[in-house]
Amino acid sequence: MAREVKLPKLGQTMEEGTIVNTLVKIGDKVSRGDVLFEVETDKATLEVESPADGFVKAILVENGETLPVNTPILILGEENETVEIETRPSGKPAAAPAKPDAGKSAAKVHTPPPSEAAETPGPTTRVVRMPKLGQTMEEGTIVTILVQVGDEVKKSDVLFEVETDKATLEVESPADGCVKAILIDVGQTVPVNEPLLVLADRDEQVPQRFITALVHEGTAPAETVPEHVTAEEHAAAAPETMPSSPPPKPTAPMEPAERLFATPRAKLIAQELGIDLRGVTPANAIRIVEADVRRAAQSAQKAAPPVTAAQYTLGQKIPLNRLQRIVAEKMLWSKQNIPCFYLNIRADVTELVALRAKLNKTAPVKLSFNDFILRALAIGMQHYPIMTGQLDGDFIRLAASLDFGLAISTEQGLVAPIVRNCGTKSVYDIAAYCKELIERTRSGKLSLDDLEGGCITVSNLGGFGIESFIPIVVPGQTSILGVGAIIDTVVPSDGNLLVRKLMTLTLSVNHKVVNGAEAAQFLDFVKKQLEHPDTLLD
Amino acid sequence: MAFSLEDRREKPTPKINDLIRQKLITKEQALDWLRSIYEIRFFEDKVYDLLGQNIIKGASHLYAGQEAVAVGACAAITKGDVIGSTHRGHGHCGAIGNKYAQTEDERQMHWNRMMAELMGKETGYCKGRGGSMHIADVKHGNLGSTGIVGGNIPPAVGAAYAEKYKKSGAVVLSFFGDGATNTGAFHEAMNMASVLDVPLVAIIENNLYGMSVPFSGSPVEGAGCAANIENAAERAAAYGVPAMIVDGQDAVAVFLAVNDAVEHARAHNEMTIIECKTYRWYGHSRSDPRVYRTKEEEKAWKERDPIVVLSNKLLDEKLASQEELDAIRARAEKTIEQATQFAMDSPWPRPEELSKDVYVEESYPADVLAKDKDNAKKAMVATRAYESLLKTLEGKTKKEIADKAKERIKSEYGMTVLAMKDAIVQAQAEEMRRDPNVYIEGEDVGIYGGAYGATKGLLEEFGKERVIDTPISEAAIVGAAVGAALRGLRPIAEIMYVDFMPICLDQLMHNGAFNRYMFGGHANVPMVVRTEGGVGRCIAAHHSKSLEPWLVNVPGLSVVMPSTPYDAKGLLKAAIRSDNPVVFIEHKATYGQMGAAPLDDYIIPLGAADVKREGSDVTLVSYSRQVMFCLAAAEELAAQHGINAEVIDLRTIKPMDIKTVAESVRKTGRLVTVAESFCMCGTGPEIVRQLFGYTFENGRTGFDYLDAAPVMMAAADVPPPMSEPLENASIPTPDKIVAAVRALL
Ligand SMILES: Cc1ncc(C[n+]2csc(CCOP(=O)(O)OP(=O)(O)O)c2C)c(N)n1
Ligand SMILES: [Mg+2]
After folding, report:
1. If you measure from the C-alpha of residue B515 to the centroid of ligand 1, how many angstroms do you get, rounded to a whole number?
2. What's the rounded mean pLDDT across residues B165-174?
3. Domain that holds residue A454
4. SS3 for B674?
5. How does the average pLDDT of chain B come out, rounded?
6. Which long-range contacts (CB under 8 A, 24 or more apart) does A187-190 make?
7. Which residues have CB less than 5 Å away from ligand 2 (the ion)?
8. Do A290 and B706 touch (CB under 8 A)?
9. Cβ of B708 and A264 within 8 Å?
């Protein structure tokens, strides 16, 4: 038996409440007492509990909606029960009018087109769901939709570009077919396995009800069902939009048609400096001005680190982007779960500086200090493999290969992709790999592979003039090396004063795995490698 | 001079032979009158046909039927005298042209050019810029014809004043219709002429109708009535001047009446009003079905056709045979046929020359421009120094301190320190000493010294001839200035408040600003209208506006608005020397503002902006008092907010020195315009429009260099309120400018 859940009066004076959080979705099994919604009143945030056991059949509200007490907000029913829902609020003239679209879309979803009765799709119908594109992937955000309803697609054609917490990936078509419905919209974040798109043979009819049900399977509340969640039948109702042959595919299908807003002067300066405006972020979030372009030009000039301070204004509320959210979670986890000790050492890199300058005159790929450091770490780890260890129950498991992270600043935030197999790479190999890795990072082309594993990360803030700093170990890794600036320093030597180029290295080490003496020897070894750089060239 | 009304229709008109005997005219002249009448008639008949064939386009108010007035009146003046014409002006133009034609060829050419003008051809009198309603040969003493009923009467007064002032002995005939005697311009002009004692003959061509409305009623059912008197000449009583009524169909009667009035004017500098009773054969214009008058009336008047009247006299008095008259007629017909052919064969004006002759092109020697740049900088520095001296020097009284400070500025900078008001007085005085053609007219400019003291002391030095207190007649003040300027004087007309400008805008725009262009570039109107505007004295909506956007909207005008005494003096002197009409608007809150200026004679080129403060972050463009506000804002922006604003004083709004603005925006990327006039369609939007259109040497435009949308600060869209807090709220002030700039950066 279906039953309506109404917004309860949760306090003496409560007259209305705002839905701040919907904790269930259609199809969920709930028990009496389970929290269904979080509701905010003028006094407090309160919970609405389920009055009975059952399955969620419909959610009648959306987050942010403010409703009078007693407004129906959810419908519970038996597992296989079909629930007919009228546009709410029925027969309740006293109730504040519900948001018109809310009622409308509820009706739209639940009223099948008159000609359509069958719910079972035909034999060629296939639902494309959000794939799990990496070990750790739980959800993905749709960045681009590359097809339209009516398009013919081949197996492995790219249908969507999806962004996960690690990378931007492509969702391919699992089969040949015609796109019958697209169930999500750009910008939506969809859990793994949720339906994205319906494919079928061109001639096969896909019942609207089937599509509707798929939509409700998803987390999207009815009201946020994207505009174009339509089946072919709907489109066919308007003949001019649905010719018998498939419509010509636009040359740049569904390209995020965001218009670029920049002042004439910004465009002019960008042209003069050769800056691509698409890569420029406006500090005022409204349009790109000259200062934004100049900043972009400056960061493009600086080989590393590439990012200058973003221009924020005091009092501004900056939305947290995905990357920063992940960084925040990981760093907190690290601080809470990895007990570190910290070691400092100063390496005399006078020779390294000279060597690098000499090599870079002819080197096909310019060598950076980081390349030498990665190489030195690789040699060091081969002598001190404990530095690759991870606690695994009663064991310490050593890494099978020397994969090192490299911290890179991007427009979106901090990323530390992995340089694989440093143990088998020459400094030149490392340089070439890193160059390509940095490019992929900056252009958002990292794969999930690039982001998994590693036993140490190199973080170099020398370019900012930082002498030394204590970095935080990346979860899953053993240590992290903070590299400071190279500074001309007066050094006593045999009663003389020499000016040498010194660089401070700071190693944060997971004490669960490694002890001070081992780590100290390792770091000293690495330092010596850097001080006698010829060995790094072997 | 006193009012008298003589109706000459009551007495018989003297015989032509009497006039010949008295040596007033020759027989040849009398025959030539008939020839002229025929020429005008055939011209009008031809124009009527050509309008029907669409060969002549536009309006044409035909003079047929009224020829005896133009011909008789023009016969009474000599070369060097002046006429003013109307929308129905082909007769006046035809008659005066015949007077100047020395040979048959010249006469033919005269009609050629008239016909070409009506067809809009380059060979026309006004190069096709004026056409039927503005046909005039201004070089031959024609003040031009006007499309605004009554509009040409005030300039005739000014022209008459100019002839009197120059002691040229010339008189001015001002033609206008019965309908025009109901306009304010007529009243203002007649009144002013009567008090100025000028050699003017005002000729009312009473053809009984102003378009469809009868002057003094009609038997036609439904017809209206324009005046409560029968004879327009009765209005002379209001001005205390003599008037006559004559038979306008009789060239001899018109000649005699005008001749008497002209003699009187020449001898005594006194005006006369002559009403000529006449009739137009055609409708008001070609489309007029003439339902307001009866066929009988038309028939009765046509019996007294000026051709018939004069022909009969010539025959009766045995001055010509019918054959001779026929020959005159045939010759006239041929002249007009040839003129038509000439006009048809003539080239069109070239669209590339569309903008030619709107202004007299003026340029300034490079050293004048350079000197101004130096002086302007020096004046700024010296003014600052003066202000700080006032704070540091000691003395018993403020005046003593100020005098000491002035002494110091004089010895250190070689500059004088003076108030805005005195700068304006000095500029006028210097130019009046320099050029005897410069004179001042306006309300309270004489003994009172100007409502804001801007003409103080000038009456004493230059006398009543050159500093004229006028009646409260804004249209006549400006219109008279136009007429005087057309006749070679350089009038400075003071309009007490720019708020009164709409009252005289017709004169300023249609005559002052447009005459040169409408008359094919043949007229110069070197006049200055000095006025003041702006809020700052709590005198509310009729005395506080800034109307420069209205004025810059007028092609042909220059508009100058100074912000400092240095600028005011140099710009006013340049304005007086300019051959174009200039409106010079002072700000009422700045008359006491002190500033440094050079000791020697200097002018500031019109159309050159002054960078009053250099900066790199934002360009503030302003003029008049708001420049001072911008400078104050710039100081605060620099001191408190680290923003370095450039402040440009346009000084001349039209022509606008957009180059200086554009170069600055190229540097700063940001533009804030600050004006005290109303926001809609204001100066700010105009500055932006011109900036967008400005092309640099590299092909980029002002638009390309903008890094933010321009901000246009201006007065709120409200009538300026009286109450001080509201007054301040209605305009940009330094705090608002600071806020706007900060929001932009
Ligand atoms: C200020 C103004 N008002 C109205 C008109 C339209 N208009 C043109 S001529 C005319 C009649 C003028 O009558 P009058 O002064 O008697 O001259 P007429 O046409 O009879 O020669 C009118 C109303 C105008 N041109 N200007
Ligand atoms: Mg009339």
Report:
1. 19
2. 98
3. 323-537
4. strand
5. 97
6. A187/A141, A187/A142, A188/A141, A188/A142, A188/A220, A188/A224, A188/A226, A189/A139, A189/A140, A189/A141, A189/A142, A190/A130, A190/A139, A190/A140, A190/A141, A190/A142, A190/A218, A190/A219
7. B 177-179, 207, 210
8. no
9. no
Alpha helices in B120-205 (DSSP H): 153-166, 184-196
How many angstroms separate the CA atoms of B474 and B534, rounded?
19
User: Which pLDDT score, from 0 to 100, does residue B503 have?
Assistant: 97
Residues with Cβ within 8 Å of residue B219, at least 6 apart in sequence: B294
- Helix extents (H) in B609-655: 625-641
Give the tens place of pLDDT for each residue, A493-515.
888 888 899 999 999 999 999 99
Pairing status of strand B528-533 against strand B490-495: parallel
Q: Give me the interface pTM, i.e. the ipTM.
A: 0.79
Q: Which residues of chain A have pLDDT under 70?
A: 85-119, 135, 218-258, 301-311
In a domain, B604, yes or no: no
B237 lines ligand 1 (CB under 6 A): no
Q: Which residues of B are the active-site residues?
A: 474, 543
Residue A75 in any domain: the answer is yes
pLDDT value of position A307 = 45
Inter-chain contacts counted by CB atoms under 8 A, chains A and B: 24
Site from A261, A265, A284, A288 to mutate, B interface, most B CB atoms within 10 angstroms: A265
Six-digit token string for A268: 């002019």
DSSP H helical ranges for A89-146: 100-110
Q: Is the pLDDT reported for residue B585 higher than 70?
A: yes
Q: Bridge partners of A61? A: none
Q: Model confidence over B459-478: pLDDT tens digits?
A: 999 999 999 999 999 999 99
Whether residue A315 is contained in a domain is answered as no
Which CATH number covers residue B621?
3.40.50.920
Q: Rounded mean pLDDT of B229-255? A: 98
Report the alpha-carbon angle A352-A356-A362, nearest 5: 155
**Does any CB of chain B come closer than 8 Å to the CB of residue A272?**
no
Q: Mind listing the pLDDT tens digit for each residue in B643-684?
A: 999 999 999 999 999 999 999 999 999 999 999 999 999 999
pLDDT(B260) > 90: yes
Whole-number pLDDT of residue A119: 60
User: From the CB of B211, is ligand 1 less than 6 Å away?
Assistant: yes
Query: What domain count does chain B have?
Result: 4
Domain assignment present for residue A402? The answer is yes
For the residues B342-366, what does the mean pLDDT come to? 97
Q: Does A266 touch chain B (CB under 8 A)?
A: yes
Residue A259 lies in a domain: no
Q: For a pLDDT cut of 70, what percent of chain B falls above it? A: 100
Task: Say which ligand is closest to the CA of B212.
Answer: 1
pLDDT per residue as tens digits for the range A263-300: 999 999 988 888 888 888 888 878 899 999 998 888 87
Same domain membership, residue A278 and residue A211: no
Quick one: B356 exposed, middle or buried, by C-beta within 10 A (0-12, 13-18, 19+)?
Answer: middle
pLDDT at residue number A286: 84
Tokens of B73: 């009146």
Q: Residues A484, A468: contact at Cβ < 8 Å?
A: yes
Tell me the two tokens of residue A316. 């501004």
- The string of pLDDT tens digits covering residues B383-426 is 999 999 999 999 999 999 999 999 999 999 999 999 999 999 99
Q: Which residues does chain A have within 8 Å of residue B703's beta carbon, measured at their own beta carbons?
A: 264
Length of chain B: 745
For residue B695, list chain A residues with Cβ-Cβ distance below 8 A. none
Question: Is the Cβ atom of B177 under 6 angstroms away from ligand 1?
Answer: yes
Instruction: Please check whether residues A332 and A440 belong to one and the same domain.
Output: yes
Interface residues of B toward A, Cβ cutoff 8 Å, are 669, 700, 703-708
- Residue B704: which of A268, A289, A291 has the nearest Cβ? A268
Do the Cβ atoms of B36 and B254 come closer than 8 Å? no
Residues on chain A touching B704 (C-beta within 8 angstroms): 264-265, 267-268
